[in-house]
Amino acid sequence: MTRKTLRNRTLCAASLMALVSGSTAWAQSMTDVQSVAKERGLSTAELLAAAKTFTPTGMKDEYVIFSSGGHSGQVFVIGVPSMRLLRTIAVFTPESWQGWGFGVGNEILDEGNVSGKENRWGDTHHPALSETNGDYDGEWLFINDKSNARIAVIDLRDFETKQIVKNPLFINDHGGAFVPPNTEYIFQTAQYNVPWGADYAPMSEYKDNFRGAVTMWKFDRKKGRIDKEKSFAIELPPYWQDIADCGKLVSDGYFFLNSINTELATGGIEQKKPPFEAGVSMNATDYLHIIDWKKAEKVYQAGRTTEIKGFPVIPLDVAIEEGLLHLTPEPRSPHGVDVAPKGDFIVVSGKLDPHTTIYSFDKINKAIASKNFSGEDEFGVPVLDFDSVVEAQVEVGLGPLHTQFGPDGYAYTSLFLDSAVARWTLGGQYGSMNPEPDWTLVQKTPVHYNIGHLGAAEGDTVSPDGKYLVAYNKWSVDRFVSTGPLLPQNFQLLDISQQGTEMPVIYDMPMGIGEPHYAQIIKADKLKPWAVYPEIGWDPMTQSVDPYAPRPKMERVERKGEHEVEVYMTSVRSHFTPEHVTVKQGDKVTWRITNTERAIDATHGFSIPVYNITLSLEAGETAKIEFIADTAGTFPFYCTEFCSALHLEMMGYLMVEPNE
Amino acid sequence: MPSFIDHIIGPRVEQSELEKHSIRYGTPGFLLLIARVMLLVSLFVPFWHMELIAPQYPENLELTAYINHLAGDVAEIDSLNHYIGMRPLNEAATLERTLGVYIMIVFVLFLELASWIHSRWAVLLILPVLLFPAVFLIDLHLWMSHFGQNLDPDAPLSNSIEPFVPPILGTGMVGQFKTIARPGTGLMLSAGASVILLLSLFFHRRAYKPLMKARKASAS
User: Fold this and answer.
1) In chain A, helix, strand, coil percent, each to 5?
2) Which residues in B lie closer than 8 A to residue A576 (C-beta atoms)?
3) Residues 590-609 of A with CB under 8 A from B
4) Does the distance separating the beta carbons of B83 and A599 come in below 8 Å?
5) Other residues' Cβ atoms within 10 Å of the Cβ of residue A488
């Protein structure tokens, strides 16, 4: 068989698939598919990739990615395998399409103010879907802000941010958000350490006054809010605590946290001191932190805490005495720590070590029980003997960062320097799930380029799905039409449904709206969002009906006092009621507005010029905005969301009568 | 007076005759019983559906009329109708919907009574029930044409739509909407009851006409 006929045969097979998946009534033949493929220069493999990912109109995605947005401060929602952006969720950064921070959401954004200062952006890194018994339950999403050490709570019934909490102890986090198998807490750990509360201290006092910590935010699932009154922190040495993961199944109750800068480097390149990049990378090993959080919860409840910045903190000496904290060496400049599906192995990747290091939870337990310590660190924390807790090391390639898991005993590790995704085998209980020998590299698929995190379908839960893996690449370089010097990142979809060496890239999605870090991939049918708000007059801030919500036939403009006016307005296709609102200059205006629609997608916008107000009112939603009408004039307000054939007519006038 | 009542309820049947021809005398009453059950069931199921089909409503809009209320996408249909100046659907046939259940119960009582009457007067009780489905459809049509032809001239789209009457059964077009109207289970039950009532009249006549004749003959 010549190469050409082989190619043609496979091309036919691929064309058939494409035809079946997109079958229409039109008379099309495989010849048409071939001619298009030829015209566009598509190979058989590429046609096959198209057949695997092309999602015709009306077909829905099987999985949904919740991606951090980096310093866009938002969250992105993306369908898999189509890799279509479904929407963004405004979190730390005001966003005018969702009307977030322009009249609505301001109170929540204000919860994230730092030392009384408005902070209107965030650096979102690690989303955490809420879990029940170690599996995503599709109810809540949490995400951290690295720049100001904040955590946000997003309700997945309406995909809106409900709460932002600011950590009172530290000013920067990286290890967050992470949740244990039943989402009792949300974990947040400091990264770039500072004195408590980011108070001032000179760098010379780094070791004595700068502190690390892990905060355990209690999540009240019923209220859908973090309960600050039941939250606490554990003091840690001033290493740069990095990424973390919660134990599951056998290791439930433990929290694994890696660190860099056990050197306690303080930088100072301008003073000819080693810059951070060198100082932080000096040691051959750093410390994996092993935290018994269930025991810590008991210690907190027993009151063995110190109040720091108004927040209960278990001091480091108490943590050591109670056996809450153990360290063990991890090679070099570790980044990701990921717990295997059965909770039995903990995989750590050191950026500067070509191996992943696999720790055994069983061995860790035994080492703690038998006090098999190789010593203490300089803060008195016991250090478990490395050799006694390590199960295996696998050489995967250069710059390993993060690991996710499949259902068949495979682990997938991102290789930043190699720009590749490595598939390798786990041993132990997973050994028999695939044909390859345990603890072996199976395949490396190049990705484009400089991969950071990666995500496999439900790949960090107790039951990974396999099928799809997405490489969250930091650079796209030459992959897309140039958009000038600032380029999108590249989300690359890999098909991991076949065992062995078959693991092709099947789609590139440019990410030109933020700089994502981690993202989780959940089965789409686990999400149960509302189609419209449950009742007319629904306040998304409380997720209940607002008794003051304006209703049809009760619309009015009411003067409450000499300088106070209340507006009760409804919006429905294609009018606001009332359409004329007249107030006096200097009036304090409280403007309530309800979208009385019940149809899916019947969103109305509402915007007032000059006053910097724009809202997005989804069907049933009510909102309250307040402003001082300090500028006299004639201001057309209008519906910003193209709602109907007479959308342009959906407007009215705010008239602010000038003072004489 | 007793003879007047006697006259209305018609001749009674001798016990021996009843036993001899139990089917002949039992059939009218049995049919009336079935009709009563059907009417009672119809109270709980839809009488009429209209489906409105347009590109932007992939799952279509539905309007369902029960004997006493409207269900389905009433709010959405009203919201669209306001563009052409049609009054809200719930302003239509308010009296009919208020009385519907009571009328039906009265009908059931009529049939109950009718099963005791062996004279021609039974027709008076059965006929209104028999005609009910037709009256329902005529009433529906009148309301439809009243609503469709009395549009608010100040409505946003009053310039671009002619008064119209959507068919109460079958398909029609209003703007970008295709309408498909069909009877509901309730109307089917009611129509079925009408057929059964017709039959019951036939069997009624066959059972009691000879008795009436005999009575007349003996009286003269």
Assistant:
1) 15, 40, 40
2) none
3) 597-599
4) no
5) 19
A32 and B CB contact within 8 Å:
no
Residues on chain A touching B156 (C-beta within 8 angstroms): 574, 646, 649
Among A439, A448, A451, which Cα is nearest to A415's? Answer: A451
Which residue does chain B place closest to A573, by CA atoms?
A: B79
DSSP bridge pairs for A571: A576, A595
Provide the CATH number for the domain formed by A63-526 in this structure.
2.130.10.10
Interchain proximity A645–B76, CB inside 8 Å: no
Q: If you classify domain A538-657 with CATH, what class do you get? A: mainly beta
Residue B159: pLDDT over 60: yes
Our CA-based measurement puts residue A524 at a distance from the nearest CA of chain B, in whole angstroms, of 21
Per residue in A509-539, pLDDT tens? 999 999 999 999 999 999 999 999 999 999 9
pLDDT for the residue numbered A25: 52
Q: Say yes or no: A389 contacts chain B, CB-CB below 8 A.
A: no
- Rounded CA separation A656/A635 (Å): 8
Q: Which of B79, B154, B158 to mutate to test the interface with A (most CBs of A within 10 A)?
A: B79
Task: Give the start-to-end residue ranges of the domains of chain A.
Answer: 3-53, 63-526, 538-657
Q: Which of A431, A430, A413, A409 is nearest to A422 (CA)?
A: A413
Domain ranges of chain B: 2-219
Q: Which of A598, A646, A649 sits opposite B75 (nearest CB)?
A: A598
- Interchain contact, B76 vs A649, CB within 8 Å: no
Assign A651 to helix, strand or coil. Answer: strand
pLDDT in tens, A334-393: 999 999 999 999 999 988 899 999 999 999 999 999 999 999 999 999 999 999 999 999
Whole-number Å distance between alpha carbons of B158 and B46:
32
pLDDT digits (tens, 9 = 90+) for A143-200: 999 999 999 999 999 999 999 999 999 999 999 899 999 999 999 999 999 999 999 9
Consecutive H or E run containing B38: helix B22-42
Helix (H), strand (E) at residue A128? strand A128-132
Among chain B residues, CA nearest to A574: B83
Of the candidates A24, A395, A40, A98, which has an alpha carbon nearest to the alpha carbon of residue A11? A40
User: Are B79 and A597 a contacting pair at CB < 8 A?
Assistant: yes
**Residues A423-450 pLDDT 10s:** 999 999 999 999 999 999 999 999 999 9
